[in-house]
Give the backbone structure.
Amino acid sequence: MKCKSCGFDNDVNNKFCSNCGSELHSFQVKAAKAKPKFYSVKKKNKRNIHSLKSNTPNLKPLWITVGVIIVSIFIAISFDLVFHKYPNSERLAVEKKSSNSAVEAQVTAIASKFVCSCGTTECNFTSLESCTCSTAAEERQLIRTELEKNEKLDDIVVDLANKYGNLKPEFAFKYKVERSRVWNSN
């Protein structure tokens, strides 16, 4: 690199002239030129990063849509369960057994004369005293309530047969109930 003061030919990397000691302006120009190249590389990389971001699809709307669909399904299922649209979620009768063992023995004796009246395949016409469905629990609770009111056993059987039906055929001769209220296995 030539010195502008004395014209001496210096090394390219020198900052000052080896002959006269003046500052070499070409070094400053060279350094100034190097910076823009350095910055232009960074700008180029930033452009590439931005172009990658712009080419990548925005997944936020997709995730929001999926979330809304899942929440909607959950709400629909909950709504159906609350309003008993599924056969297995019929209202759950709370069976409060009596602390009096004599009353519970009478409940079992009366319930053994009936078949569960819910009509589902789960019960499969199980005897009322051993059925675990909510309808059977409701029927046994009715028996307990009547027993606690000191109703006669025969009257309780007739009331239960008239309300729910499914009196076993072997007991039909003893109680005066309509034939339609007697259980028919066919």
Notes: The chain has a mean pLDDT of 76. The helical segments are 25-55, 60-82, 101-111, 134-148, 153-164.
